[in-house]
């Protein structure tokens, strides 16, 4: 007679039922592993981190094809998502748009597009990226995971986690005044900022080593004024734009921070203001001191931009954060791992969150499915190092943009470094179908390529030196550094950055 199988033993337990945890769980379950998801709440629920990118689409499409995730296939493009699954709310994202309000005269719409920057990420709405309405999308990913055989423990608290031996974990759960015990060989922490397993293991925090320092206040609004209408009222030359301004991740830039504006097809808009905390000496973040309503009330241009907008009934409140950044000293051990957004987070400025999360799922699924025994710890160690290196790369790409809030020419130039790195990764991923020739998965944003890291590190070092010397005292100082950025990124510049036919208007940057 075969031995009795323990119904509460799983090959993998995933802590956290967001889209990334659910995606990893469904992949493992479809390949025959016993997987459970544990989450302290249930769906639907409010979440941000809503803006995808070409990298996110490429990565998700790669996983859909590799693991036959047909239920997710329409979500890799705006056109197919809208046509096949209109019940899942999303928005169209053709690219990134930036409007500069930080000068003495505020935003000026001129023929030279001095205060505007639009960078396309797709050639049409049909193949565009998407803004994810996370309440719908996360719930859908979770439902698909359950249909794939994943056991779900929702509205469930983790009372304790005991590491009995290598590949031997015991989790004590509580739900509805009852308790349950799960055992597993491997745990994945997908709890994001809650860092449930990382805190239990006492993993040190290295946040203070990061350059970026920001906080945010945000929510969802209904009846936000049309951005195109506002631009027309300012006399903007919208015929030069590579896409309709609303079909993008919209950034309104100020000297002390920036506001995001992400529109969804149901008329709802995600709005948030991110404060630069680099000069804040107060014990509380600026976001904790002034919520979004206060920020809007004290800035006439934001009242213009939002018009008669009203706070959406869901979530029905405004959120305020402490410092956004976090970085763990390690992202994996021999029998556990944290997804990238749990191991660390930098800032929403470049919309890297969704893609980085999917990249982590891609790598962990390959490790857990293809390797065991002596080889797995080495791969997990490499995964940990890679995730931390990627977060530090994002930190540098974001930090320089915050320095650039003092002068839009500097912001625009530093953002070109991000677009050079992002398009380098997108083209390399497309050319290699996500896997390098030696079988290793390439690093997110090409963070494992020496050319990329050398370029970013050189420019970051120079900018830090200039900031410490307060060297940006004249237009000539800014122009000289902009020229240096242009020269340094030239080996990565495959899409005509710095040389658009129309100033600050980029019509073609995406890998097809």
TrEMBL record:
SUPFAM superfamilies membership: FAD/NAD(P)-binding domain
Keyword Oxidoreductase: yes
Species name: Novipirellula rosea
Keywords: Membrane, Monooxygenase, Oxidoreductase, Transmembrane, Transmembrane helix
Transmembrane segments: 12-29
Record-annotated FAD-binding domain positions: 10-43
PANTHER family: FAD-BINDING DOMAIN-CONTAINING PROTEIN (PTHR43747:SF5), FAD-BINDING PROTEIN (PTHR43747)
Superkingdom per UniProt: Bacteria
Protein name, as recorded: FAD-dependent oxidoreductase
């Amino acid at each position: 007679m075969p031995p009795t199988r323990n119904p509460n033993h799983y090959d993998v337990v995933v802590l956290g039922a967001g889209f990334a945890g659910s995606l990893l769980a469904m992949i493992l379950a479809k390949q025959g592993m016993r997987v459970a998801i544990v989450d302290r709440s249930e769906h639907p629920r409010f979440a941000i981190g809503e803006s995808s990118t070409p990298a996110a689409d490429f990565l998700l499409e790669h996983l859909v094809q590799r693991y036959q995730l047909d239920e997710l296939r329409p979500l890799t493009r705006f056109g197919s998502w809208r046509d096949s699954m209109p019940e899942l709310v999303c928005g169209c994202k053709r690219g990134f748009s930036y409007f500069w309000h930080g000068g003495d005269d505020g935003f000026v719409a001129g023929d030279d597009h001095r205060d505007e920057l639009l960078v396309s990420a797709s050639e049409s709405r049909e193949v565009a990226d998407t803004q994810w309405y996370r309440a719908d999308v996360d719930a859908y990913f979770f439902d698909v995971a359950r249909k794939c055989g994943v056991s779900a423990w929702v509205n469930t608290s983790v009372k304790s986690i005991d590491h009995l031996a290598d590949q031997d974990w015991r989790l004590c759960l509580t739900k509805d005044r009852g308790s349950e015990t799960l055992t597993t060989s491997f745990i994945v922490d997908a709890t994001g900022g809650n860092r449930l397993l990382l805190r239990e293991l006492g993993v040190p925090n290295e946040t203070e080593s990061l350059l970026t320092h920001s906080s945010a206040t945000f929510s969802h609004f209904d009846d936000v004024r049309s951005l195109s209408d506002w631009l027309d009222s300012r006399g903007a030359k919208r015929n030069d734009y590579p896409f309709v301004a609303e079909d993008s991740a919209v950034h309104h830039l100020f000297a002390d921070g920036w506001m995001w504006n992400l529109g969804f097809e149901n008329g709802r808009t995600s709005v948030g203001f991110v404060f630069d905390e680099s000069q804040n000496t107060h014990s509380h973040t600026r976001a904790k001191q002034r919520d979004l309503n206060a920020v809007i009330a004290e800035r006439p241009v934001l009242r213009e931009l939002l018009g008669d907008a009203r706070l959406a009934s869901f979530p029905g409140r405004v959120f305020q954060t402490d410092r956004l950044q976090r970085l763990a000293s390690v992202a994996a051990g021999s029998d556990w791992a944290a997804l990238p957004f749990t191991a660390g987070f930098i800032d929403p400025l470049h919309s890297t969150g969704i893609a980085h999360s999917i990249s982590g799922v891609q790598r962990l699924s390959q490790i857990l499915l293809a390797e065991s025994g002596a080889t797995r710890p080495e791969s997990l160690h490499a995964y940990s190092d890679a995730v931390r290196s990627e977060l530090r790369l994002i930190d540098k790409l974001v930090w320089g943009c915050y320095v650039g809030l003092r002068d839009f020419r500097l912001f625009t130039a530093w953002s070109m470094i991000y677009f050079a790195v992002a398009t380098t990764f997108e083209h390399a991923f497309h050319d290699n179908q996500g896997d390098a020739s030696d079988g290793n998965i390439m690093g997110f944003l090409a963070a494992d390529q020496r050319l990329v890291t050398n370029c970013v590190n050189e420019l970051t070092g120079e900018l830090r030196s200039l900031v410490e010397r307060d060297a940006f005292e004249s237009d000539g100082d800014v122009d000289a550094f902009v020229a240096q950025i242009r020269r340094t990124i030239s080996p990565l510049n495959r899409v005509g950055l710095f040389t658009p036919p129309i100033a600050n208007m980029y019509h073609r940057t995406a890998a097809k």
